[in-house]
Amino acid sequence: MNIILLGPPGAGKGTQAKRLETERGMVQLSTGDMLRAAVKAGTPTGLKAKAVMEAGQLVSDAIVSGIIGERLDMADTETGAIFDGYPRTYAQAESLDALLSERGRKLDYVIELLVNEEALVDRVEGRFTCAKCGEGYHDKYKLPKVDGVCDVCGATEFKRRPDDNAETVRTRMAEYRAKTAPILPFYEAKGLVRRVDGMADIDEVTRQIAAVLDGQG
Ligand code: AP5
């Protein structure tokens, strides 16, 4: 099964994609994570993407569709992929169709996480992760049980994304409204869109997504 998780910054795409990986053996393809890895490694793609990402704007369609195409050639994606943060423009949506059909695959669902944007600024601004294992935390909603120590791996280093400040989050949301939300009709016309309540608690969102994937949503 191949699905897209669609929603603005902080909607919970990454949170739910990780759960689907664990629970269903699907593979998360997050263009944001791939670009951040390229920035960290200092690759030519990373060098091009860094400033654009820090400004909260979109990296070029050619770069992101290129990295998704390379990733789809890896065998682990053959049994099912979760597209997290891709596609983000009409051109990327068309590229994804082509990339999948060239490999004899197809999209099963586009799951839109319905959210209240104002609440998301708070979600994104407070987010931080363990620098060693990547476990996610939040200043208000999920602090480590022991102050300064990761619950999962015991590490004491944490990190925050450079684009997780209120000003950049608002630019990212504006990009979503202007360029990403308009791809919904493309998928509506194919009958692929399903909606879940992204403001419900994390377990309830997982349950609603499971109902869709199990054909009950
Ligand atoms: P990307 O990394 O994709 O960021 P994003 O879309 O802005 O999404 P986030 O990762 O911020 O949010 P999320 O929906 O995954 O939420 P999460 O689960 O973490 O992209 C970053 C940048 O890369 C872009 O701005 C762009 O520059 C570039 N880029 C990436 N892809 C691109 C593309 N295709 N084309 C062009 N450029 C691209 O949750 C957030 C927080 O909320 C967490 O703390 C979590 O614990 C909490 N939370 C989650 N769900 C709930 C809930 N139901 N209730 C309460 N709290 C919750």
TrEMBL record:
InterPro entries given in the database record: Adenyl_kin_sub, Adenylat/UMP-CMP_kin, Adenylat_kinase_CS, Adenylate_kinase_lid-dom, P-loop_NTPase
Coiled-coil segments: none
EC class name: transferase
Gene3D superfamilies hit by this protein: P-loop containing nucleotide triphosphate hydrolases
Binding site for AMP: T31, R36, Q57, L58, V59, G85, Y86, P87, R88, Q92, R161, R172
SUPFAM superfamilies: P-loop containing nucleoside triphosphate hydrolases
Subcellular location: Cytoplasm
Binding site for Zn(2+): C130, C133, C150, C153
Top-level taxon: Bacteria
Annotated GO CC locations: cytoplasm
PROSITE patterns: ADENYLATE_KINASE
Residue ranges annotated for the Adenylate kinase active site lid domain, each copy included: 127-163
Record's keyword terms, sorted: ATP-binding, Cytoplasm, Kinase, Metal-binding, Nucleotide biosynthesis, Nucleotide-binding, Transferase, Zinc
PANTHER family from the UniProt entry: NUCLEOTIDE KINASE
Annotated HAMAP family: Adenylate_kinase_Adk
Its job: Catalyzes the reversible transfer of the terminal phosphate group between ATP and AMP. Plays an important role in cellular energy homeostasis and in adenine nucleotide metabolism.
Descriptive protein name: Adenylate kinase
Organism: Sphingomonas pokkalii
